[in-house]
Amino acid sequence: MRMCSIENRPRRTERRCRIAASICAGLFLTLPGFGQVYLPQPPVTQPSDYGKVVLSNHAVTGPGPVVFDHWLHRARFTCRLCHVDIGFAMQANATGVSATSNRQGFHCGACHDGKRLFNGKPIFAACSDDTNGKDCDRCHSLDKPGARKYDYNTFTAELPKDTFYGVDWIAAEKEGKIKPVDFLEGISVKTAPMEARKDFSIKARLSWVHPIVFSHEKHAIWNGCELCHPEIFPTARKESVEFSMFLNIEGRYCGACHGKVAFPLNHCSACHPQGPLWVP
Ligand code: HEC
Ligand code: HEC
Ligand code: HEC
Ligand code: HEC
Ligand code: HEC
Ligand code: HEC
Questions:
Q1: Which of 123, 128, 137, 222 is the pocket-test mutation for ligand 2 (most atoms within 8 Å of CB)?
Q2: pTM, to two decimals
Q3: Residue ranges of the alpha helices (H) in the chain?
Q4: 119: which of 31, 73, 104, 267 is 20 to 30 A away, CA to CA?
């Protein structure tokens, strides 16, 4: 680029330079990875399917695959409660949920035991020996329309929306429309709240990308500390992680949540509010 910026260059060379530069830029942006990823794209899934997990390890022996929706559960509980206290893996089908573990009060059965109350009503039981099994299909619901009570549109009707993928969860929490529970009697252990850390910025490796602002405070509302430290961000020392947008897209670092359950990576401006450096 520097070559092209030398002044008093003959007109023709300058034009050639410009054409070459735009071809380069064009190539750069159309490279399979770069083009797909660095350019804003429409959301990949319907908002109602965003964060949907189909549990199917026992698809053959059980009453069919189970559909778990994040939108329904995250409106009521924090990520930390399920992924740290109850211990669900952050990867589909990696936890090894079974009818037995549920009946013993682990996994889904930590809440779905027919006894624990939510809003004053017992939460329907998972994999009970109830032989008429009226609630089985509420979870074992893949390809069984009408089996479930809640649907996305009715459930989220009152919640603020985000243009990229449905509910704007940050706003919903801030406006008090949802109050995710962070403690489960008999499962969570009361600990003194960790001191919130300051917001900080992550310097991008490319000089034309503004630093990325990361808010510890806003993340801790949902994730506590343990969801990120030490597993996703191994050390608690700043600037020890080699961030990159490609690793995010592969599902590492920020991409462990963003793109699966938290807002997707094509919402560039949420993390890069100033855009690239050429945007004033
Ligand atoms: C009610 C419990 C619950 C809550 C609350 C919850 N999750 Fe999950 N999450 C699960 C379960 C169950 C799975 C699937 C695990 C399995 O299949 O082994 C899962 C899977 C995931 C996955 C992997 C998805 C995939 O497609 O591989 C991510 C990422 C994730 N959760 C992030 C979050 C984040 C971020 C939050 C908070 C905004 C959150 N979860 C809230 C229970 C929960
Ligand atoms: C932290 C507590 C908690 C955990 C853990 C949990 N749930 Fe739930 N779940 C709830 C509550 C509360 C409701 C709402 C129940 C109601 O209103 O009847 C609910 C509702 C549901 C519904 C909606 C049913 C319908 O008819 O629309 C499904 C499906 C469901 N859960 C599946 C699961 C599965 C599968 C798991 C385990 C992978 C799981 N849940 C783990 C608390 C939990
Ligand atoms: C709250 C959600 C929920 C409800 C309600 C539920 N299950 Fe399950 N069940 C699960 C999950 C999650 C799995 C693991 C699915 C997988 O990985 O294939 C499972 C697995 C099973 C399995 C697989 C075999 C095994 O040994 O693990 C059987 C059998 C089963 N459930 C029976 C039932 C019956 C019968 C009912 C109704 C009385 C029922 N379940 C209701 C969540 C539920
Ligand atoms: C969840 C937050 C998040 C979202 C959403 C996001 N980025 Fe990034 N991005 C980052 C972080 C963190 C870095 C810092 C990587 C580093 O150190 O260079 C980064 C770095 C970059 C870089 C510098 C090159 C690199 O790989 O480090 C480019 C270019 C970039 N992002 C473009 C985009 C574009 C275009 C989008 C939308 C399609 C986007 N980003 C969406 C968090 C995000
Ligand atoms: C969503 C993920 C996430 C959550 C949740 C989170 N952190 Fe961090 N934390 C980070 C990242 C990313 C860094 C920077 C790592 C790097 O640059 O190498 C970091 C850095 C740190 C550092 C070193 C930098 C500093 O500010 O001194 C400390 C200490 C820390 N976190 C503590 C905490 C505590 C305490 C909590 C809970 C209140 C928490 N973190 C919650 C992602 C998270
Ligand atoms: C453990 C899961 C997790 C990880 C890892 C994570 N986030 Fe988030 N982040 C969330 C959740 C949950 C929210 C709430 C909004 C939502 O769910 O869409 C959020 C919200 C945000 C917001 C909006 C908050 C605001 O300031 O208004 C930004 C920006 C953000 N994340 C950037 C990042 C960046 C950059 C990284 C990587 C350094 C990162 N996140 C890593 C879960 C995560």
A1: 123
A2: 0.91
A3: 2-5, 11-30, 32-38, 70-74, 79-80, 99-103, 136-139, 152-155, 169-174, 216-223, 245-249, 268-271
A4: 104
